[in-house]
Amino acid sequence: MIRHILSLSKRNQSFGSTKNILDFSEFLERNVLSSAPKQISLATIRNTKEREHYSKCFDRTGKCQGCEKNKNWKKDESRLTIGEAIREAQRCLKCTDAPCQKGCSTSIDIKSFIYNIEKKNWYGAAKVILTDNPLGLSCGQLCPISELCARNCNVASSEKGAIKINKLQEFAVSMFKEMGVKQIRDPKLPKNDHIVFDSSIALIGAGAASLSCATFLGRLGYKNVTIFEKQQHAGGLVVSEIPMNRSPVDDINWEIEQVKQLGIKFVFGKELGKDFTIESLRKEGYECVFLGCGLNEPKKGLGHIYQQSHILNSKSFLPKVNKAVKQDKDVEATPKLSGHVIVLGIGDTALDCARSAYRCGAQRVSVIFRRGWQDIRANDEILIPSKNEGINFIPYEQPLKLIEVDGQYKQIELEQNLPVNNDAFNLKYQLTGDKVTMSFDYLITAFVFKLKEWLCLDKRFTPGQRLRLALCRWRCCWSGQFGGCSQ
Ligand code: SF4
User: Fold this and answer.
1) 142 and 88 in one domain?
2) Where is the FAD/NAD(P)-binding domain (predicted)?
3) Reported pTM
4) Atom 6 of ligand 1, nearest CA residue
5) Which domain holds residue 324?
């Protein structure tokens, strides 16, 4: 190129121009070409250490040596900017028979809120979302859209993929949050003297189910709604178990505040079965009860292993992490882990444990699960960041037993568990007999939790009783006459 410029400028001179302002050949020859290599002799050598110095993500082995994810509880993905949100909303086709809406578990009118974002009507967009889902902000951050709305999106196969419905939802509701608009009882509702609105209603557990139920009751006009919670805070799992890097605490606090604005009362530190019973609530005058207490009972038979301090389960580890990071806002107070941490399980909770383990000081984190990738419970929204963080995934391994070393469980024996048939929809696994032993410094189990047994077997609530109970739509809690079914 340089030689081409030189020849051009020389050609200009030969046409007799007296002064050619492009002629910098002398400068080039003196300052640039003189220092250029005359011939290629050696390949450039740059060793791995030098390269890593320039590479931000050198941590590909799963070893974390003081890299940036240590104690980094910053949100994984920041909120869309106004420009990004509008551009994303413009990509949406506003399909007539919007299949995304059929995949939404809270039936939000998705194309309508996206249309409002496109027209810069943030209030209108948030109104559409919050009408159907009072926890629209948390859901925007946590919803597994790859399995719900976005899975059905008509532009999923386009170059930019499915519409980022969750990010648009988060954007719209957080813009609404910044407006500071309060939630009020609908002024068009009948006045206070309407006797139905005086019914006392108890909601057990202050998690997402009860917060949502309470909001709809408040919006319908019910004034005597009380939520009983065994912890000292509302928000349920979102506050106590889902880490800060997935759901910032300020956002769920705002959602709880919105519920309180409807006049819903909260009673903290009261546990069903310990401090009160359904019967005692009935005697106190509650006419309806909504049981939204979730799944808290660990699997049976593992109690003895948790007596050792380096063996934890998700229900003991994540609440401690979140108490420090989310509630007390003190990242130094998280549980201190080190060395190799093994997490058993491959659900969202297991991956929350694994990612939190890194942030609590682990140098290597291995997630062991007994099935293949096609069978895992975790969704892409958490799986992809987990892979990027260098977590060591070990599929097809069934944990058999823990092995004691010097009086402490320090090793785990695993047996290979492979699929034995070709039916993609009904894979059957079989242990092959190949066993390995793996050492660990900390072990965290993240198995399925279940409903308290005495609640599952509850046959006391027979038809005809005044207090009515029914299963909620997720079939993990009961509700009174406002639930999916009633007696
Ligand atoms: S399916 Fe996709 S493109 Fe169609 S309305 Fe829903 S989000 Fe928009």
Assistant:
1) yes
2) 200-407
3) 0.79
4) 100
5) 303-422+430-445
